[in-house]
Amino acid sequence: MEKPPFPGPTPQKQAVNAKHMKNLKKKEEQKMTNGMREMEQKQKQKRKHTEKAKHSGQTHAKDPALLQQCLGPGCVYPTRPGSKYCSDDCGMKLAADRINEILPQRIQQWQMSPCIADEHGKKMLERIIREQKETHKHLKDMECHFHELEAIILRGKQQAVCEDEESNQSDRGQKDLQIFCVSCGQAISIRIALHHMERCFVKYERQSSFGSLYPTCIEGTTRLFCDVYNPQSKSYCKRLQVLCPEHSRDPKVSNDEVCGCPLVHNVFEFTGNFCRLPKRLCNSHYCWEKLRRAEVDLERLRALHKLEELLEQERKVRTAMTNRAGLLALMLHQTIQHDPLTADLRSKEDS
């Protein structure tokens, strides 16, 4: 008879792999069970600690022998749980006794030696008050200049229109010259450059908005901020009223309206004469009224901002001076005077 063939190695390998997989599964199950046991032990320890704390608090509350005596002056009662006193009155009495005992000595030490910080604070207050007076004076001058500018604009509008042939000829000679716009970069004629640049700037300026939740309320000032309420953003416009491109438009110029710009000599010297060209034909003084008003309003705004900064500095210096000799500072801090014959504790550099 023929012997059956020996089985190949493949069934043995499959059996080994199955045993290996079983061992891996057993190891993973053991790890999971060990992790769960550790978690349960930690939770049990936490519960034991909380129960011990509760039990100790209850035993302290039940057993008055374990409680400490109240630190209040003359008090013999036990303390409350988690406190050094039996009541709030005992704590207030002890604090009052400490203040009455320590504070007079600290005040006497404070008065014996001069405070360098107070001297510096007084000098800073003098400087701040002097700057405030100068800023108030400058603000009044700018308000006067504001009314003077309005009077000059009114006088210029009352001038008679007179077309100057020489200026028209010079404008005709400049028709071929070109310049690039600073906003859009387009090449434009130099004759209409100011018109184009102003319109281009307004177009880009409209894309951004400046607002606040509250309207402006400043005493003694006229025509400063726009303050138009926007219901969508629920804010008030905080641009200058003269330069606001969103809520103010330039009025239409009539044919018989005069330019009225005051003429100057050497840039700053006012000659007393006015430009009497028609406003629609004058290219040299385009939007001069708006720019002059904006210059004055911007200077007034800077003065107001400086006043606000000076007031904030004054408040900080005064609060520092009042807190320096206060009850809490005297109780917590102390200056040690090693030489009783020397009253001034400043160094040579400070003095």
UniProtKB/TrEMBL annotation:
GO terms for molecular function: DNA binding; zinc ion binding. InterPro entries: CpG-bd_C (IPR022056), Spp1/CFP1 (IPR037869). Residues 44-57 have a biased composition (Basic residues). Residues 1-61 are annotated as: Disordered. Residues 26-43 have a biased composition (Basic and acidic residues). One of its GO terms (biological process) is positive regulation of DNA-templated transcription. Keywords: DNA-binding, Metal-binding, Nucleus, Transcription, Transcription regulation, Zinc, Zinc-finger. Residues 1-10 have a biased composition (Pro residues). Coiled coil: none annotated. The keyword Metal-binding applies. It is found in: Nucleus. Residues 95-331 form the CpG binding protein C-terminal domain. GO terms for cellular component: Set1C/COMPASS complex. PANTHER family: CXXC-TYPE ZINC FINGER PROTEIN 1 (PTHR46174). This is CXXC-type zinc finger protein 1. The gene is LOC103270867.
